[in-house]
Amino acid sequence: MGLRQIVVMVSAFLVMGIGLTFAQANEKELEAVRAADAAWMKVYHAKDLDKSLSFLDEQGSMLVSNAPIATGKDALAKAIAQDFAAGTLTWHGNKAGVARSGDLAYTSGTYEWILNDSSGKTATDKGKYLTVWKKEADGSWKVLYDMFNSDLPPR
Amino acid sequence: MGLRQIVVMVSAFLVMGIGLTFAQANEKELEAVRAADAAWMKVYHAKDLDKSLSFLDEQGSMLVSNAPIATGKDALAKAIAQDFAAGTLTWHGNKAGVARSGDLAYTSGTYEWILNDSSGKTATDKGKYLTVWKKEADGSWKVLYDMFNSDLPPR
């Protein structure tokens, strides 16, 4: 086997190896993103403001209905606190996707929001959400964008 | 130079080459996604249903406020036709990001919607949007998810 053949073979294996690494990383990252989505829901449902905030990227944004876009820690803390005051939120992801390079992902699904009423009664809002996730330098997945809106007519 | 050194050097150049290719592809794809976002707005603003539909992936979804999620061509055509009937929409992207692998991307920005009123008057809605894009097999960018909501109080 000549030098040229060896170089071609090594190159081919390297490219295949990188391809396989991507496919495996992708599968692993898809699970990680789904887990992050569910873990975020858990602390959001429990109304833990600090832990809920910790799932967002430093430049993360929440696009809340009937309010301007909230970007950065202070605005996000305010938006999340308003969600907590309004009621109790539960969501379930039913779709997720990750880029081959494992640095960008999305999740989407449905939510149920038990809303407090000024009269002490509750109302139930149902809707859908879309979240864009970014892989941080430390390997964790953080929320870059989060948005949800109601399936129901305006109240 | 021994065989081992040659193999190491070729491998190093190959990995560097792949890295550079990603960086260049990323820059090019970011421009392509921004262009797709602007081109979609143009046909949406002009109320061209077929062209507006053509920007969505076959399994694309629109997450419209106060309506269930619309997925697939028939549901999307209905959702877009409803948007067209409601008024005239203009949007401007101000953020965009692409995965290193150039297969997944997002755009986000603001919209202005001149809404028709049953009395013949118009009202202006302002809000924000988030779009997730997928690179198709033919190299084009198509919408996987699109969602927008109002900054204003419920009407």
What are its keywords?
3 helices; 155 residues; homodimer; alpha+beta; 6-stranded mixed sheet
Protein model, in words:
The structure is a homodimer of 155-residue chains. With 155 residues, chain A is an alpha+beta fold. Chain A is built from three helices and six strands. Chain A has helices at residues 3-45, 49-53, 73-86, and strands at 56-63, 70-71, 87-98, 104-116, 122-135, 141-150. Chain A has a six-stranded mixed β-sheet with strand order 2-1-6-5-4-3, covered by helices on one side. In chain A, strand 3 and strand 4 form a beta hairpin. The longest helix of chain A is centred in the first third of the chain and has 43 residues, at 3-45. The N and C termini of chain A lie far apart (76 Å). The model of chain A has no long low-confidence stretch (mean pLDDT 92).
Low-pLDDT runs of 5+ residues of chain A are none
Number of helices of chain A: 3
Binned, the helix content of chain A reads 40-55%
Largest interface: A-B, 42 and 42 residues
With strands numbered from the N-terminus, the spatial order across the biggest sheet of chain A is 2-1-6-5-4-3
Kindly estimate the percentage of residues of chain A that lie in beta strands according to DSSP: 35-45%
Order of helices and strands of chain A: HHEEHEEEE
Task: Look at the helices and sheets of chain A and give the structural class.
Answer: alpha+beta
Shape of chain A: elongated
- Radius of gyration based on Cα positions of chain A: 21 Å
